[in-house]
């Protein structure tokens, strides 16, 4: 299968000051999907401009025609399945059936306390995620849903007419732990990873490849446990968070080598960050565009 290449565009620019242009250029460059982060703020961008994912994707849907759009990722940190489902159905409609939901358990960043709550423990995040995804699946596939759980409830929540994509828009489930991988196996049309975060600071690219191979194997086990063929589940690597960092984007050759190595592990999609000057994602824009246009033809 040909490796797909996608990008993630951080929502830090005003729409009429470079925001619109980036999304339109992403489609011109041939990216399979353009994602944005679904955060209230993020890391070093916390004290600067940052716009909402849902309005940004709505605007992007209006100025693009063919490229898929999505979140990478949405989490329970500040989302509720009932209101999120309504937004997703609307986005899928506006985009003409081009929306994908990347969804994860969330973390301990700024979103974890922005609503005034205490940060959840890893156990609490896993518990909430385990309820969040199945309920969202129901809300996007049933006309009316009532549910009472430990963390979320719905009372006759109506979602008519449902998604343009049937039975619903695709889920790309970000997970590395056993409970998350089970959710990816059962509900995901794709699985997402950033690699092993423990290796980011002091690990090596070789250690990262071994760790990713182990994650792919665990995903296969989770699929086998429910009688699903893991080959039917797309496998997405969000790059930039492995020990390689931005080095694969330094040249076309470096990227093709990096991509080929990860394609051999079973990955079907790689996602690269849109260049942002003076940040961890600062790369040569000409090289970035060369990679976007030429790398996919060199990867089979």
Could you describe the 3D structure shown?
- The protein is an alpha/beta fold and 300 residues long.
- Helix content is 38%, strand content 17%.
- It has eight helices and ten strands.
- It has an eight-stranded parallel beta barrel, surrounded by six helices.
- Helix 5 (178-187) links the parallel strand 7 (171-174) and strand 8.
- Helix 2 runs parallel beside helix 3.
- The mean pLDDT is 97.
In short:
This protein has about 300 residues and is α/β, with parallel strands linked by helices. The chain contains eight helices and ten strands. The strands form two sheets. It has an eight-stranded parallel barrel, surrounded by six helices. A two-stranded antiparallel ribbon has the order 5-6.
Instruction: Give the termini separation.
Output: 6 Å
Annotation, overall tally of beta strands: 10
Gyration radius, rounded: 19 Å
What is the overall pLDDT average? Answer: 97
Oligomer: single chain
Q: Based on Cα principal axes, name the global outline.
A: globular
Q: Helix count?
A: 8
